[in-house]
Amino acid sequence: TGSGTGIGPVTVAAGATLGGTGTLAPTGTSAVTVNGGLAPGDAGIGTLSFDLNGTAGSNQLVLGSGATLTYDLGAPGTGDLVRLLHYAGGDLVLNGNVLDIIDAGGMQRDATYPLFAFFADDGVTPVAHGLSAGALVLGTVPSGYRSFVLDYTSTSNLIQLYVVPEPGTALFLAGLAVAACRRRRVRPPGATA
């Protein structure tokens, strides 16, 4: 928790985890390479930022092919977040990394949770990330939740997780909508069209 700056690359070895809150600010052509785990937050929900302002080139945050991510999610829209500041396309490299989800309390269906946020500056101006589906894959998820969607496109500066509502809930809501339409169409006795 806090901030870290320095010269030289940072490598998180397999079996180790980079986590907590605060800001990491690599410099020069140094990259942060995660071969172990990435877990924003500090024993709960939190934000871990990478300020890439002092870096040159691309591939500034690289998750190796065996790296995993662990996110705590709470009430809708509340959860762990990785922010990339002064981001340019190619600064983040994901390799089909496994994303494990933990319900930190209050997680709900039919809710969206930002996982990564990308900014052209210090966190004010959103910038498109340019990543595509398949960069992350779901691993362990809370029991009782049947379906999740990793969303790379609905908001160009975010990678988000959408918790899909249960099919029974969707069918129930559709049935209510049909009943409401029919109720409006019933004419009282003696009414003419």
Helical stretch count? 1
Helical amount: under 10%
Which class of secondary structure composition applies to the elements? mainly beta
Q: Strand order across the biggest sheet? A: 1-4-7-10-13-16-15
Distance between the termini: 70 Å
Mean pLDDT: 86
Order of helix and strand elements from N to C terminus: EEEEEEEEEEEEEEEEH
Uncertain regions spanning at least 5 consecutive residues: none
Beta-strand residue percentage: 35-45%
- Gyration radius, rounded: 21 Å
What is the tally of beta strands? 16
Which quaternary structure do these chains form?
Answer: single chain
Give a short account of the largest sheet.
7 strands, mixed
Task: Summarize the structure in words.
It contains one helix and 16 strands. It has one helix at residues 167-185, and strands spanning 2-6, 10-12, 17-20, 22-26, 32-34, 37-40, 47-51, 61-63, 68-73, 81-85, 92-93, 97-103, 111-118, 136-138, 148-151, 158-163. The protein is globular and about 85 Å long. It has a seven-stranded mixed beta sheet, with no helix packed on it. Strands 3-6-9-12-14 form a five-stranded parallel beta sheet, with no helix packed on it. A four-stranded parallel beta sheet has the order 2-5-8-11, with no helix packed on it. It has 193 residues and is mostly beta strands. The longest helix is centred in the C-terminal third of the chain and has 19 residues, at 167-185.
